[in-house]
Design goal:
Length: 395
């Protein structure tokens, strides 16, 4: 799906509005999320029925680790947006299984891949110290399992793509992962939640399924929720007019329900479009989060200008499609940049029904290389009406 050709015309019309000065000194900011929900809070009803515990990290069954007293510091610690019940962390105090048997060596890529395929509520038991699991294969959700799949890192686990591969994949329309309904593009399961985890150095470059993108996480269908997690140094293809999502790429969600991103950090991502988040026809609610230092590095915008490969829009967030909404609340979006349009956010609703709101947030120092919407620094917007901005600073 590509944006209307009018985008380029409007881009030229607004090109005279300069991006914010990228050389301003970055503010002192300590990542952390004192308001983020933590493990132990109950999400939506039926958040997973405990089953037999399987020590997937080793040959013997292991008792579940206790929930961490302190979870990962992520997001905007000063964010005060109210988090609805369905957006809160899933209670993982009684997991379906644990990954690992209490030592770092037992927490392997193979154990993660097996746990994700099996579904259910999964915690890690890798010992008390922080651990990085080097993924040697992408963990893929099996659509018939679950229906809820939860990965809770307890604040100490990093999943690393080692700069070589995508970390996590869910696609209800991928026959290899199994068809579970006759309408794969609009089904309520699987429901994937990642919480208290770090996703580092994911790279989906060269992945062509569903158009690619999603260096750390790719999702089509079902539901996705991200709580108190960090995404750092993720990558996807450098060019492409509609490809994006260095950290997360989402295509279709059940009944257009939103992807919730709560108390999370996206730092140092790079892709053709959407240096952090990218979607087509998907709604987002981003609460109490931090998106910084992400880049849209493509060239030629969308549709691609003659002689260019396309891309370069949405330094942090890239959204295209028809009917969708974006709500940003209690969030800081800073020091992102785009070669083309929307150094912070690129939002194009092709049928002009989409809406965006920014509440109690700060959007600053997000230079747009060539175009943005006049009066909204760092944002390029085509929708039903101009973005609604409440108690927020755009500069």
């Amino acid at each position: 799906m590509t944006s209307l050709a009018a985008l380029l015309v409007l881009g030229v019309a607004t090109a005279a509005l300069p991006g914010c000065a990228p050389n301003d000194p970055a503010p002192t900011f300590q990542s952390g999320s004192s308001v983020s929900p933590t493990a132990g809070q109950t999400g939506a009803p039926g958040a997973g029925t405990p089953g037999a515990r399987d020590g997937l990290g080793g040959p013997t069954t292991s008792a579940s680790p206790k929930p961490a007293d302190k979870v990962l510091a992520a997001g905007n610690p000063n964010g005060r947006a109210t988090v609805p019940a369905e957006a809160r962390a899933v209670d993982t105090s009684k997991p379906t299984r644990t990954i690992g048997t209490g030592t770092p060596a037992s927490c392997t890529s193979a154990a993660v891949v097996k746990a994700v395929a099996a579904g259910g509520v999964n915690r890690f038991n890798c010992g008390p110290a922080p651990v990085t699991i080097k993924m040697t294969a992408t963990a893929k959700v099996r659509n018939a399992n679950g229906p809820k799949i939860v990965l809770d890192g307890g604040g100490t686990v990093t999943l690393s793509g080692q700069g070589q591969r995508r970390i996590l994949y869910m696609n209800t329309c991928d026959e290899v992962q199994g068809f579970t309904t006759s309408h794969c593009q609009n089904q309520d399961h699987p429901q994937l939640t990642v919480q208290n985890l770090t996703f580092a150095d994911g790279n989906s470059t060269g992945e062509k399924a569903e158009g690619g993108g999603g260096g750390a996480i790719f999702v089509r269908g079902g539901r996705l929720k991200v709580v108190n997690s960090r995404f750092v140094r993720n990558r996807c293809d450098r060019t492409g007019p509609d490809l994006g999502g260095a950290a997360i790429r989402v295509l279709s969600q059940y009944e257009n329900k939103p992807v919730y991103v709560v108390g999370s950090t996206f730092d140092g991502g790079s892709c053709s479009n959407g240096g952090a988040l990218s979607s087509i026809g998907v709604s987002w609610v981003v609460l109490n989060s931090l998106l910084r230092n992400n880049e849209a590095i493509g060239s030629g915008a969308n549709p691609a200008k003659s002689g260019t490969p396309g891309g370069g829009s949405g330094g942090a967030i890239y959204c295209d499609g028809n009917e969708f909404t974006v709500r940003i609340a209690g969030t800081i979006i800073e020091n992102n940049k785009a070669n083309e349009g929307g150094g912070a956010v690129f939002f194009v609703s092709n049928n002009r029904t989409g809406t965006m709101s920014i509440e109690n947030s700060t959007v600053r120092r997000n230079p747009s290389g060539k175009f943005e919407t006049r009066g909204f620094p760092g944002i390029f917007f085509l929708g039903a009406r101009n973005p609604t901005v409440t108690n927020s600073k755009l500069s």
